Amino acid sequence: GDSVTQMEGPVTLSEEAFLTINCTYTATGYPSLFWYVQYPGEGLQLLLKATKADDKGSNKGFEATYRKETTSFHLEKGSVQVSDSAVYFCALSDFGDDKIIFGKGTRLHILP
Amino acid sequence: EAGVTQFPSHSVIEKGQTVTLRCDPISGHDNLYWYRRVMGKEIKFLLHFVKESKQDESGMPNNRFLAERTGGTYSTLKVQPAELEDSGVYFCASSHPGGQIFGPGTRLTVL
Fold first, then answer.
1. By three-state DSSP, how is residue A109 classified?
2. What is the pLDDT of residues A20-57, one digit of tens each?
3. Which of A17, B8, B30, B53 has its CA 20 to 30 A from that of A108?
4. Is the model's pLDDT at B69 over the cut of 80?
5. Dist. CA B101–CA B95, nearest whole Å
């Protein structure tokens, strides 16, 4: 079945560092890809998404590019802030199927 | 507009007891989903309602779990009897054309 694999955390960085969180997927169809974020004490929020190959999703300085050839959707940010500390989930939704399949989540700590 | 709300935010019960979780979707959203995250694992799909009908319940773990959505508005998820492995965070989401909007979750602890 479909699945998502993302790098294990926690990831600890200093403020203004460059961030990459790796994500790869397995899907039988042509999925849409997502990054969700959960800030402390809050619910899941959609951070960005991409629906077809080579699309780049972006939001709040974060970016991820849908790479069909490597089945990847890595999350990047050029300069992280303390307020980016959260748990990040890579996810997919296969075409024609509403349910979302999530990775295990990566906890990110940003130190001032 | 109000978001997806869930009640309670936390619940601590003993093994064998019954717990009912509630989800209020965004008004007008016909699609409602339940997910859960067991400690350290992925967030997993449980089921999907379209209005009051169960569209997909393939993720429901066993018959101790019962979900309802009478009248196509709010939904409840009952666990009876609860077991230790049911501990986790239960998320509800409702959908609009841009995607699913999640509630804050209910943290369930079974002792």
1. strand
2. 999 999 998 889 999 999 998 888 999 999 999 999 99
3. B8
4. yes
5. 6
The Cα A32–Cα B46 span in angstroms is 20
Is A101 in CB contact (< 8 Å) with chain B? yes
Predicted local confidence at residue A94, as pLDDT? 83
Query: B32, B43, B94: which to substitute to probe chain A, counting the most A Cβ within 10 Å?
Result: B43
pLDDT at residue B98, as a whole number: 66
Residues 17-36 of A with CB under 8 A from B: 34, 36
Q: Which of the 8 DSSP states describes residue A22?
A: -
Written as six digits, the tokens of B87 are 């501990």
Whether residue B104 is preceded by a cis peptide bond, meaning omega within 30 degrees of 0, is no
The answer to whether B33 contacts A99, with C-beta atoms less than 8 Å apart, is yes
Token duo for residue A9: 């955390």
Share above pLDDT 70 across residues of chain A, in percent, rounded to a whole number: 97
The Cα of A34 is separated from the nearest Cα of chain B by a number of Å equal to 10
Average pLDDT of B13-32? Answer: 95
User: Given an 8 Å threshold on Cβ–Cβ distance, is B43 in contact with A98?
Assistant: no
Beta bridge partners of B106: B90
Length of chain B: 111
Q: Percent of chain B beyond pLDDT 90?
A: 82
- Which residues of chain B neighbour A36 with C-beta distances below 8 Å? 102
Task: Determine contact: A66 vs chain B, CB below 8 A.
Answer: no
